[in-house]
Design a protein that fits this description.
about 900 residues; mainly beta; 6-stranded antiparallel barrel; 6 helices; about 5% helix
Length: about 900
């Protein structure tokens, strides 16, 4: 206590002496003046505030000896946390421990700094700590330049410097090391005995290009003389006559180096070679292609654009000619493949009331198979969907959506386009509600209305017939207006009574007519059916009325003892009736009859409207009474971990729905199938989904439903319907979900960006492990003339990833088909994080995609061509 008090008193006394007497000290007086700073107080010393006498002293002495104007153009601020020493005779300031110098855009930090006001120089280096290790080495910053060094001498007038053992970051991915650096006034630096690398280790980087001399132009380039590559401090024979490393923060145009190799089916190849064009600060274009010695080739231009705070996107068009095998061999195949890929995103803040987006993925049947080797997602995908959408609204009441849609299945080779789809809607409104309501609403004030308009133009075809001659005749188009009117009122406090009327009108530009014509070949059927397309506007009106009631029923059973406290069952029964008039009446003209000229006994009924566009008006009247029962079952148990309530709820059944319907207008087979569907979480992260359909009626030997119940024929209540009975289990668990239980406030990791081709290249080492298993069992039956046939699917799929060590990660994607008794598509990937490098090994042991691939490469995009690849894919011979 006494020592601390004496120290503080001495400090205060020193400051009083300095503040009052230093300005009057002559230049030939005391040579040095030491200003101690107590370690515990850590008071920073500013030239411009705490030492006003030093400025006047230095200026007065300089005026006597050097009449010329000082080179200092701005104020020099300096501070430290240990001590500051003034050498008045030599006009120097010495700062110790956490010293910092600020002059214009220059900032210097170090444990020892020496300022020479006479020479306008700064000299700095680190100091040894208690163990003898040099700490507090200089950190120099000027504008965008920043580097560390052991010793630095810098003239802030000429802006020239001499630096020893420098380490600096050039841009996001590159670093420079040098023994000696001479910094010139134009910010150009000359280096001796240095190295260039993308490894961020200050000492002993994992790899580097060593050079004797180099010239560094900040923000532009690094030019070196002869250089050789060093890996793990071991020189290699990999040498270059000179080095040219761009160091611009912005993109630069240049040549893209291709990868080379050999394919048994395509020959020698060069892949991914081309030219990168930085068109502007918003747009760039990569023109790349592949070429094979046996005639195959591909072009894959990719355009990217990014207008910050407005929109961004990527457009890729790929065209390939694939020649597999040798002409005349059984495996010879020749095809032309293409793909169009476009993603466009608009910033929500750019135009809050409207949005334009695009997600287009159109490809030929064999493109993924022949051109995207080694990609699990590409190989397993057979369904491709595209959409281009524009949406806007007016005062959040009127909404307009314009869509262009595409769907494609590479297995069935079907393609469907909707070009365009227009949707206009008006929000729900209450036409009879008072603007200034008071008191209880009248029943008619609960009547609400909406308006929806849909207009579509559809085109369905096969990929081999896409835009073939006459494709315009296959277009389907129409407009649909829908006006739903509904009202819900509460009856007896607990019953909800809903009444609704649904009005719709479909408009078409053509209709169909069918007729029998005499066949030209009399050896066959004498008459054939012909369908005529009648151009002209025609519309179809439809209406239906529905009335339904629903309520909620609760049941609870409480336990007096044991861990279970109570079980609660919530049921939501609903009963409704829907009436549809008979629009099949000849007076409407929506349905026509055609009579077979051979017997004139069984006329055929058909709709005059295009098939598959919108639902046709019903051909008969119906009065359907529907029944449904929704169930929810939960259990309350005791929980000692919950110190507030002491209980915990467990959901036994989240949603179990049982429903059927009865048609009053039918003369037989009035009951529809009984549908059962449900889902629940059995345990944490284990999800169960169930669905099935059951029939009350029996079937005859031909599989047709008869007007006899299953009980009357087979003495059983229900029979499984022809549709599928399905059970699905999904279980997902990862280290992130385990952590979230302990830390619920942890933010989710950023989402992975969409990739064009390299779906498997993204590895998240932040997730130590994860595991997902999917179990699917489906059972379907049908009873044709030949007897009962069963359709069974029984599969399990699983995928997971595990960090064996913080730097080793293994991933597995596989499954098993219990019916076929074989493994499904299987792939194993092993990844090693080598700090500034990365290594990958992938293996597909069986199937058409049987392959393996190995690669080791530098992570930095600047040196992306510094890699080694070796692979044998499904196109190569093993």
């Amino acid at each position: 206590m006494l020592t601390d008090l004496l120290t503080k008193v001495s400090c205060v006394f020193c400051w009083i002496v300095i503040l009052f007497f230093v300005p009057s000290i002559p230049g030939k007086g005391q040579d040095t003046l030491v200003l101690p700073v107590a370690v515990k107080d850590t008071v920073p010393i500013h030239k411009s505030t705490l030492l006003p006498g030093i400025d006047s002293l230095l200026k007065a002495d300089t005026a006597r000896k050097q009449p010329k104007k000082s080179a200092l153009k701005s104020k020099v601020d300096y501070l430290c946390t240990d001590s500051l020493r003034l050498d008045i005779r030599q006009k120097k300031v010495f700062l110790y421990k956490d010293a910092e110098i600020k002059y214009e855009d220059i900032n210097l930090k170090a444990d020892y700094v020496e300022i020479d006001f006479q020479k306008n120089e700064v000299f700095s280096h680190g100091l040894p700590d208690s163990t003898g290790k040099i700490v507090g080495v200089p950190e120099f910053t000027q504008g965008d330049q920043k580097f560390k060094s052991k010793i630095i001498r810098y003239n802030y007038n000429t802006k020239k410097g001499f630096i020893q053992s420098v380490f600096t970051k050039q841009d996001q991915d590159s670093y420079l090391h040098a023994e000696i650096v001479k910094k010139m006034e134009n910010d150009v630096s000359y280096m001796k005995n240095g190295s260039f690398t993308s490894c961020d280790l200050e000492e002993n980087p994992h790899y580097a290009f060593h050079f004797g001399k180099a010239k560094v132009i900040p923000g532009k380039r690094v030019i070196t003389g002869p250089a050789y590559m060093v890996i793990a401090q071991v020189p290699t024979p990999l040498m270059i006559p000179f080095g040219y490393f761009p160091s611009k923060a912005k993109r630069q145009s240049g040549i893209l180096i291709p990868t080379y190799g050999e394919s048994a089916n395509k020959g020698f190849f060069l892949q991914g070679g081309g030219y990168y064009w930085a068109m502007s600060k918003y747009t760039d274009l990569a023109l790349v292609g592949d070429i094979y010695s046996r005639g195959s080739w591909a072009v894959k231009p990719t355009l990217r654009y990014n207008y910050r705070y407005h929109y961004n996107g990527t457009f890729n068009f790929s065209y390939a000619k694939n020649i597999l095998g040798v002409p005349g061999s059984p495996d010879y195949d020749k095809s032309k493949d293409f793909r169009v890929f476009w993603i466009h995103n608009q910033d929500p803040k750019a135009r809050p009331r409207s949005n334009f987006s695009a997600n287009v993925n159109i490809s030929s049947t064999k493109f993924n198979k022949n051109n995207l080797s080694g990609s699990t997602q590409a190989y397993l995908s057979n369904q491709f969907n595209s959409s281009i959408n524009y949406s806007t609204n007016w005062n959040s009441k009127y909404y307009l959506n314009l869509n262009l849609n595409h769907s494609q299945n590479t297995l069935t080779k079907t393609i469907n386009f909707t070009l365009p789809q227009i949707a206009f809607s008006v929000n729900q409104f209450y036409p009879f509600r008072r603007q200034k309501s008071s008191g209880k609403l009248k029943w008619y004030e609960n009547i609400s209305m909406k308006y929806n308009l849909d207009a579509e133009n559809r085109y369905a075809t096969y990929d081999s017939l896409l835009f073939a001659p006459g494709w315009q005749k296959k277009l389907q188009n129409g407009v649909r207006h829908v006006v739903p009117i509904s009202a819900t009122i509460t009856v007896l406090k607990y019953v909800q009574w809903t009444n609704s009327i649904n009005l719709s009108d479909k408009m078409y530009l053509r209709s169909f007519r069918k007729r029998y014509v005499l066949a030209a070949d009399t050896a066959g059927a004498p008459y054939i059916l012909k369908t005529d397309t009648i151009p002209g506007f025609v519309n179809a009106f439809n209406a239906s009325a529905t009335s339904s009631i629903s309520t909620k029923l609760y049941g609870m059973y409480q336990f007096k003892r044991g861990p279970i406290m109570a079980i609660r069952h919530m049921m939501t029964p609903s009963v409704g009736i829907t009436y549809v008039p008979n629009f099949g009446d000849p007076a409407f003209g929506y349905w026509q009859y055609i009579q077979n000229d051979t017997n004139h006994v069984n006329p055929q009924k058909y709709s005059i409207f295009p098939e598959g566009m919108y639902d046709n008006p019903p051909s008969r009247k119906s009065g359907i009474v529907s029944f449904s029962l929704r169930n929810n079952l939960e259990m309350k148990v005791r929980n000692r971990k919950d110190t507030i309530t002491g209980t915990r709820k467990i959901m036994l059944i989240e949603d179990l729905v049982i429903g059927t319907a009865y048609d009053l207008a039918r003369d037989s087979l009035n009951w529809s199938n009984i549908g059962i569907r449900g889902n629940t979480t059995l345990f944490k992260n284990l999800r169960l989904t169930y669905s099935s359909s059951w029939d009350l009626y029996a079937r005859d030997a031909k599989g047709n439903r008869i007007n006899k119940t299953e009980w009357q024929v087979n003495h059983r209540l229900l029979r499984m319907d022809n549709s599928t009975w399905n059970v699905t289990l999904n279980y997902t668990l990862s280290s992130e979900t385990v952590k979230s239980k302990k830390n619920k406030d942890k933010t989710a990791p950023p989402a992975k960006q969409d990739l064009l081709e390299d779906y498997d290249d993204y590895v998240d080492f932040d997730i130590p492990w994860s595991f997902t298993i999917n179990y699917n069992f489906s059972y379907g039956t049908r009873a044709p003339v030949t007897g009962k046939v069963y359709s069974v699917t029984h599969t399990v799929g699983f995928n997971g990833q595990l960090n064996i060590t913080p730097k080793w990660k293994i991933s597995l994607n596989s499954g098993y088909d219990f019916i076929a008794k074989e493994l499904s598509y299987t792939r194993i990937d092993i990844t090693r994080d080598l700090h500034c490098w990365e290594m990958r090994f992938g293996w597909t042991p069986k199937g058409y995609q049987q392959s393996w691939d190995f690669s080791i490469n530098v992570k930095a995009s600047l040196l992306q061509d510094l890699k080694l690849n070796k692979k044998k894919d499904f196109r190569n011979a093993f």
